């Protein structure tokens, strides 16, 4: 099993953190892992993306041109990465701020209203974990035991008290992801 993932959005949406948690969780689950971030000079508001590869086999290169899964959190990322999803792959997106939704019909497309839900819950900081939960519902390649360990590893010790909120957000996200277009 190899899963090649791109997560893309604005800086400040937790894009890199989501990728880091996936990567640490994969390491804890004894997988081969690659985590390669890319971001502009802006701390918040600029675009950011991260490529994560999780595999049972050795990873030959962290540089990819096509992905099994794209998790898209803004329109600029949709414009840039929609066409990089492999035919038959998965595109998950939060419709908040998306003006032109994906149009491809050779991939599986899912929506997750994570921004809206995080706002309603008053938990804007766990927006990315809601999205992660949606991904894990569709592709349960990592167990929650290892996601918990990934959270412990990636969050500073002073924020470990927030781990239960993050795990609750992941579970919430699993219930929010909705198929928009699924191949037969």
Report the radius of gyration as a whole number of Å. 15 Å
CATH class: Alpha Beta
Ends distance: 22 Å
Give the name of the CATH superfamily. Answer: Pyruvate-ferredoxin oxidoreductase, PFOR, domain III
Quaternary state reads single chain
CATH architecture: 3-Layer(aba) Sandwich
Helix-strand sequence: EHEEEHEEHHHHE
Low confidence ranges: none
> How many distinct beta strands?
7
Q: Which strand order does the major sheet show?
A: 2-3-1-4-5-6-7
Give the biggest sheet.
Answer: 7 strands, mixed
How much helicity do the residues have?
25-40%
Q: Sum up the overall morphology in one term.
A: globular
% residues in beta strands:
25-35%
Write the layout of secondary structure elements.
Layout: E1 2-10, H1 15-28, E2 32-39, E3 47-55, E4 67-72, H2 75-81, E5 85-93, E6 108-111, H3 114-121, H4 127-138, H5 144-154, H6 163-176, E7 178-181
Parallel strand pairs: 1-4, 4-5, 5-6
Antiparallel strand pairs: 1-3, 2-3, 6-7
Structural summary, described in words:
With 184 residues, this protein is an alpha/beta fold. It has one domain (2-181): 3-Layer(aba) Sandwich (Pyruvate-ferredoxin Oxidoreductase, domain 3). It is built from six helices and seven strands, in the order βαβββαββααααβ. It has helices at residues 15-28, 75-81, 114-121, 127-138, 144-154, 163-176; strands at residues 2-10, 32-39, 47-55, 67-72, 85-93, 108-111, 178-181. The protein has a seven-stranded mixed β-sheet with strand order 2-3-1-4-5-6-7, sandwiched between helices. Strand 4 (67-72), helix 2 and strand 5 form a beta-alpha-beta unit. Helix 3 (114-121) crosses helix 4. The chain is globular, with a radius of gyration of 15 Å. The mean pLDDT is 93.
């Amino acid at each position: 099993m190899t899963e090649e993932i791109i997560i893309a959005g604005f800086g400040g949406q937790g894009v890199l953190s989501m990728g880091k948690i996936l990567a640490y969780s994969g390491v804890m689950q004894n997988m081969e892992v690659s985590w390669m971030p890319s971001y502009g000079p802006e701390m918040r508001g600029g675009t950011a993306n991260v490529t994560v590869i999780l595999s049972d086999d050795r990873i030959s290169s962290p540089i990819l041109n096509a992905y099994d899964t794209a998790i898209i959190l803004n329109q600029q990322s949709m414009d840039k990465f929609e066409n990089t999803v492999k035919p038959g792959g998965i595109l998950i997106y939060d419709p908040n701020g998306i003006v032109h939704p994906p149009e491809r019909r050779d991939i599986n497309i899912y929506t997750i209203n994570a921004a809206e839900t995080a706002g309603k819950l008053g938990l804007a900081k766990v927006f990315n974990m809601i999205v992660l939960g949606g991904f894990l519902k569709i592709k349960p390649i990592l167990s929650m035991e290892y996601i918990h360990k990934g959270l412990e590893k990636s969050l500073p010790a002073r924020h470990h008290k927030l781990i239960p909120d993050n795990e609750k957000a992941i579970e919430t996200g699993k219930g929010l992801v909705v198929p928009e277009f699924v191949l037969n």
